[in-house]
Amino acid sequence: MNQYYLLQVLAHVIRGQELLQQQSTFVPPPESPVLLPVTADQPKVLVADDNEFCKNAVRRLMQRYTSRITTCADGLKALIVFKNEFPNFDIAVLDYQMPQIDGISLISAMRNHEAAHGECKKRVTILCMIMGDIPAR
């Protein structure tokens, strides 16, 4: 998976407008979601959010770039899926506040799993989101 392509996808999803200006063949996809054929070069995305609206919104955004998307409704399910499919995920989009395991604890567990399997030098790109104020820890 091309790391620059992942950066471009995330920049486009987050900012929703112009992409980072660097040399690339990246072309933003059409605004309406289309079903892309599954290919090995598409990023594989893990989306974890207990809010159905947010989870589906992220899924719909990511469908512009890939059809390889797995969604989970809480942090524990996301961790189980991540470990079972390791090292296949390229991007993880996580909610900060979730039942079972929150986003920050999930990131820590994912990084620990990656470190424990150091023979695989791939690290997933993680984006953690929150709606509203960040609670005190």
What low-confidence regions span 5 or more consecutive residues with pLDDT below 50?
A: 16-24
The geometry reads as globular
Helix/strand order, N-terminal first: HEHEHEHE
The share of residues in extended strands comes to 5-15%
Helix content: 25-40%
Return the CATH architecture of one domain: 3-Layer(aba) Sandwich
The number of E-state strands comes to 4
Task: Tell me what you see in this structure.
By secondary structure, this protein is of the alpha/beta class. The protein has a domain of 91 residues: Rossmann fold. It has four helices and four strands. It has a four-stranded parallel beta sheet with strand order 2-1-3-4, with helices on both faces. Strand 3, helix 4 and strand 4 form a beta-alpha-beta unit. The longest helix is centred in the last third of the chain and has 14 residues. About 7% of the residues have low confidence.
